[in-house]
Specification:
4 copies of one chain form a homotetramer. By secondary structure, chain A is an alpha+beta fold. Chain A has 8 helices and 18 strands. In chain A, helix 1 crosses helix 8. The longest helix of chain A has 24 residues. The first copy, chain A, is globular, with a radius of gyration of 21 Å. Strand 11 of chain A pairs antiparallel with strand 11 of chain B, so a sheet runs across the interface.
C-alpha cells in the first residue's frame, strides 16, 4: 500500500503541507556506504526553487534541506549512508499570512479543493495544503539520493513544448538547457517562449507544457514483468506529479501511426555489445531496460490558478465565481523538469535494487 | 513488491506462459457475498478471444475459465464469493508444435526476447513465453470480477485510432462498438479500417492503435494522494499492457497546448449535486475522482511480428536477419480494448476498497 | 498488503479450500536458473502427507504436485526456473461426501467457524474450507523451492514436546528424526509418546505440542531492521501456521529469567571468523543473522476436533453441544514439523533476496 | 516491503538514531476527522520516558513530541486529522559527549554491533545508533494515534515477570499498575521486584522480564487469513521490539500441554451475543478476532549492557574483553510495557482498516 510512499526497495515517503511548519521525506532502503551530505542534494533543489525568474512563482523559499538521520562518517571521515532511513526536512519560511476564507469556501476549478473535501470531509486550504506542488521539493531531494545509487547513471530533462509551441528537435542542445529559464534545449524556442509566456503572465493566464526526461547509463535488465515493468513504473511516477495528464515512452503516441517495419528498432553488433539503430522503444522492451537511453515524456496541464473568473460552486452547494490572485507559476511545466528527472531517477534506483534482489550482482 | 501482482487490496496475481499447460490468476481481497460463477467471466473472455475475425490472430483458444476456489453457495444456493482467494485457470489448448529454434537464437526487434534473456539468462521462446499477450486473458477474467465489486460501475472501451486513421468523435456511438470487429464507435471509421487493415494484413505488416476506456458510476473520492493517485494507478495499469507506449487522462497531451481558461472544468449545481461543464480532467482532480466519468486513452505500438525481414543479432552476438511467420494480430490494439477495460475496472475496484479502508462506507 | 501472500521478494500466494477441486500456490520472485522439477518438491510433501501412521489423520491424499509455469529447459536440457512465477497445483482427491449440516450450523469451539462467519457472512464448512490445515501442503511445496534459493542452507525440524512430555535435549539425535512417526530426535521420548498418543487417540481426545526448527548455513547479515527483523518475520511465519499459539527464538521465554551475564553469547575468534560460545540469541542480534544456526520453537494447541461434546452456539444464536467425528490428527503438532521447516526456509530465502537488494552480493 | 515501516493501511515509518539530531515517524493512512493534538500523544510518551525511577536509565530525555503535518482545524476549530500523513518529531537533547571508540571497535555481546557492521559495513556506535531502544519512543507516539482510530478500543499492559519472579495472577489489579515503577498489577510482587532489581542494579547486572498486553473492545472479525492473521501480525509487532525473544497468544506455550477438552473455549449465549466460558484462544480463532479480549505476552531478554566484562572480538578480528559502563536500564522489560501496548494498538488499528476495506462498515 502506498498513500504517500513511492518505490518498493528504494522507498520515498513524503509528508507536509504547503503552509505547515515544514515538509519532509524519509528515504528507506538506500544502500550503505554512499557518500552523502546536504551538498549532494541542495544543488538539485536550487534548480527547482521558485522565484528564480519572472516565469515562476514569486514565493521565496530558500528550500534548505537538512539530513536528520541515516548518515555517519566512515573510516576516512567521509559522511556516508548507513543503510538506515534517511530523513530529510525543509522548513517552510515564506508562508505569507493571507485570507484563505474564499478558497476555503469555494472550489477552484482544476484544483483538488473539491475532491479532497469530498474524500476527507476536511482540507487545509492554505496554499493548497497537501495537494500543493510544494511537495515536489521532497521528490527532488530524494531523487538526488537516487542518482547516487546506480553507478554510471545520468538523468537529464528538458522542456520540449510550452503551450502550442514545441522545440525543433534538430536543434536539441543539452548544454543550452542551463542557459535559459525554461530548461529548454533549443535556444530559438526559448526566445519565443519568453515572449509568449510574458503575455500569458501579464494576462493572468497560464499554459501547459511537455517535458522530456532521459536516463543514460541504465543497465540492461532492469524491470520486472508483468506488473512491475520499468515503463509501467515510470508512467506511475510521472503521472503522480501534480498537473500531469499524459505520459509516453519512446515513440509514445506517435507509435500508434507507425507500421511494424518503421517501429522496429533494428540491431547490429557494436563495440560494446548490441547496438540499436533507433530507439522507438525508449530503451525498454517487454518492460525491461535494453541498455539504450530510457526516454519518457509527460504533459502538464496549464496552471489552474488564473485571474479570469471561472464558474464554480461552494462547499455549501451555492454557485459562485472565483479567480485566483497571488503568486503562481504561469506555466508549472517549467519547474516540473527537475521533478520529472527526480522521479525517473527514483524509479531506476528502485528497479536497480529489485533486479539485484532477484538476479544478483 | 509486485512482479506479477497488480493491485493492493483487490490484488491480481497472474502466472503462466503462452505455451505452458495453462495460464491462471489468483484474485485476493475480493469482498465476500458477491454472486460469481464462470458465467460472469466467460463473456468478457469471449470478447477478447483470438480468431474471431481475420483481423486478429488465428490461434484458436476457447479460453474456457474455471473457478478453482473462493466461492461457495449462500443460504439461497447462489454461488457467491467467500472472501478467500479466487483462483482462475484457463488451459492452453492450441499450442501448435513448431520449430522455435530460430526465435530461441535470434532476438526479434520490438520483442522482449533480448531483454528477458539479458535479465534472466534464460527464456521460454515458445510463443513469447511469459511476455506473450496471452497473459492478458487473465486480466480480462480478473476484470470481470472487479466490475462486480463497485456498485453501479460501468466500464467500456473503444478503439479510436488505427494506424494514422482516427475516428470522428462527433459520430461516437457506443452501440456501434459491438457491430464491427474493431470495437469501433464510429461505423464509418470501422469501414475504412477494415480496408486499411486488410492491406496491412496481406502485406504481412502491422500497425498501431489508440484505445479509449471510460468508467462511469465511479464514486467521488476514490484515489489516495500523493503516490496512489487514481490517475497514477490507471497509468500504471494501462502501461503494463503489452505494447503500450503512452497513456493519457482526460484532455491528456492536448492539455499542454490549452490555456488555463480553456482547460478549467467549470462547475454549476445540478439536480444531483455538482455538475461539471466539461471534463478535461478526465474525472480526476488531485488524484481523486470527481464523480464524472473517468476517461483514459492509451497508445499501442504496431505488432512487432512482421513478415519483412529486420536486422537483428543472435544471443551469441552474431548479426542476422529475422522475419516472423505464423499467426499474429496485424493490430494488437484491437484485442487491447477489453484488456484496457479490465485494467481500468481493477484499478477502480482496488481504490474503492482503499477508500473504504481510510474513510469508511 | 497480504491476505494470502507471504514474503516480499520471495513471495508465496496460496489458494484453495480443503474440499475444493484443488489447492495451489504461486511462487513469485524466485531467482532464475535454479534446477527445479516436481522431484525436488514431492519428497517434502510426502513427509507431511496424512495417513502415514495411526497418529495422523486417515484422510488419504496423494498430494501430487504439478508445476504449471515458471520453468524451462536450459542449454543443457535441465529444467530450471526462468524468473517468472511458478504455479504449483495439487488436486484434492479424498473429499468424502459427508453431511456438513451440523458443522455448517454450529460453531465448533477452537475452530474458525464462528470467526469466518462473523467476518465474511459466509464460509465453506466442508473440511474447514480455507481454514483447514490442508493449505499447509502448499507451504511445504513452496518451502521446497525456498530451500534451493539460498546456497548452503539446511533447514531441519523436530518435535520436542507432546502434551506435557518433553524430550531430553541431551539425547538429541537428528538421525533419529526419520525413524519414528513423530519427527522426534529422542528415541526414548518417541516410545513414550507412542504410548501416550495411543491413549489420546483412542479416547477421541487430542493434545498439543512444541516444535523446534533450525536453519544452518544462514549467511550473516540477513534481516532488515527495524520492522523487517529476521526474528520478527520468523515469528510472523510460524504464528501464521494453523493452531500455533506461541513462538520463541533462541533462549526464548527462558531468557526472561536469565541474568545479563548468563544470557550474553560471548565471542572468540575461530578458524572461519567469529565463534560464539553459546547461542541464546538463536542466531539473530538486532534482527540480523549472526551466522550461527537460527533456532526457533513454536507451540501448537491441541486439535480442536474431539469426540467429547463441548458446549457451543449455532449461527442462529441457539445453544447446542457439539462433538467432532471423522478423521483427525490427535496431535496436529506432528505434521506441523515440515510446515514449520518450510516457513523458516521461506523467510530466510526472502531475506536473502532482500539483503542482496540493499547490500548487493 | 518494510525495512522501517510497520503496518499496511495504518502505516508507521520511523527514522532516527539514538544520538542524532532527532527521531521521528510518519503515520500514513490515518482516517480523517479524528481530534489530534500533542496533548493526545504526550501522556503516553511520558509513561515510557527514561529517568523516572532508579530502575530505568538515567538518561534525561523530555521526549517532547511535535506534530509537523496532517492536522488542521475543523469547522468547530478543533484540530483534527486530515487524512494526509502525520509527521511526528522528537528532538534528542541528552546526547552526552562520550568516547565511543571502544564500542566502535569491539562488539558488545547481545548487542547489534556485530550484525549491523557485518550487514552494512558501517554503523553509528553512539548510543547504539539505529538499534537503540530510543526508536521505541516513536512507536509509543504512533500507538497513541492508533488508539484513537478504533472506536471503543482499550489497550493496557503489565509486567508479569521480572527475572525468575512472576506475579500471582490471582492478585491481578489493573489499578495497581500505575502505583509502582514496574507497571506491575500485583502490589506484593512489585515490592519483591523492587528489592530484587535493586540488587541487580547495584551489581551492574541485568535481568529479563515478561510483559502481558491486553486489548479490549476489539470488534469481532478483524484479521485476514491466511497470511495476515491477527495473531500473526501481533507476533510480528511484538517480536520487532528490541530484546524480545518470545511471543505468545492466549494460553500460549502452555497450550501445548493441554488436552483438547481443556483447551476448548466453550460458548453460551450471553446478553450481547456469544459468550465464551474461557479465553485460551486469547481472543483470536483462525487468525480472526472473536470479540473477546485479545491477550498476548512477550519475553524480553536481560539488558545486554552490564558491568561484568564479557569475552568478545573486535571488528579487526582480535579477541578482547568488554564491559558496558554508563546509563542503562537494569531491566529493559519495564519500559517495554508501553511499547508493547502501542504495537498492539497499531496492529489492531491496521486490521480495523483492512477489515473495513474488504467487508465494509
Amino acid at each position: 500500500m502506498s498513500h504517500n510512499t513511492f518505490g518498493h526497495l528504494f522507498r520515498v515517503t513524503t509528508w507536509g503541507e504547503s503552509h505547515g511548519a515544514a515538509i519532509g521525506c524519509v528515504v528507506d532502503g538506500c544502500p550503505p556506504l554512499i557518500p552523502l551530505s546536504e551538498a549532494d542534494i541542495q544543488p538539485w533543489l536550487d534548480r527547482r526553487r521558485p522565484g528564480q525568474s519572472k516565469f515562476t512563482t514569486q514565493r521565496r523559499e530558500p528550500d534548505e534541506v537538512r539530513i536528520m538521520s541515516g548518515v555517519y562518517q566512515d573510516a576516512d571521515g567521509t559522511q556516508v549512508t548507513t543503510g538506515t532511513p534517511i530523513s530529510l526536512v525543509i522548513e517552510n519560511v515564506d508562508q505569507r499570512s493571507k485570507d484563505y476564507s474564499e478558497i476555503a469556501r469555494s472550489y477552484r476549478p482544476g484544483h483538488a479543493d473539491m475532491t479532497y473535501e469530498t474524500k476527507y470531509g476536511i482540507r487545509d486550504p492554505r496554499g493548497g495544503g497537501r495537494s500543493s506542488a510544494r511537495e515536489t521539493a521532497m521528490r527532488v531531494a530524494a531523487g538526488a539520493i537516487a542518482r547516487k545509487v546506480v553507478p554510471g547513471l545520468t538523468v537529464r530533462g528538458a522542456l520540449v513544448q510550452v503551450g502550442p509551441h514545441a522545440i525543433d528537435r534538430q536543434r536539441w542542445d543539452w548544454t543550452a538547457v542551463g542557459d535559459n529559464p525554461f530548461f529548454c534545449p533549443d535556444p530559438q524556442a526559448a526566445e519565443k517562449w519568453a515572449e509568449y509566456l510574458d503575455g500569458v503572465r501579464k494576462a493572468g493566464s497560464s499554459t501547459g507544457a511537455v517535458i522530456e526526461v532521459v536516463a543514460e547509463g541504465v543497465p540492461a535488465g532492469l524491470g520486472a514483468p508483468i506488473y512491475a515493468k520499468l515503463d509501467q513504473d515510470i508512467a506511475s511516477a510521472l503521472m503522480s506529479i501534480n498537473a500531469v495528464k499524459g505520459v509516453e515512452i519512446g515513440a509514445g503516441f506517435a507509435a500508434a501511426a507507425l507500421s511494424g517495419e518503421d517501429n522496429a528498432d533494428e540491431m547490429r553488433m557494436g563495440n560494446d555489445g548490441v547496438r540499436f539503430l533507433s530507439n522507438n522503444a525508449g530503451g525498454i522492451l517487454g518492460g525491461i531496460s535494453t541498455g539504450q537511453p530510457v526516454v519518457a515524456r509527460f504533459a502538464v496541464k496549464p496552471t489552474s490558478s488564473i485571474l479570469t473568473p471561472r464558474r464554480t460552486v461552494t462547499r455549501d452547494g451555492e454557485e459562485a465565481d472565483i479567480s485566483t490572485k497571488g503568486r503562481h507559476d504561469p506555466c508549472v511545466g517549467i519547474r516540473a523538469v527537475p521533478v520529472g528527472e527526480a522521479m525517473l531517477a527514483i524509479v531506476i534506483a528502485d528497479h536497480y535494487l529489485r533486479h539485484r534482489a532477484q538476479v544478483g550482482g
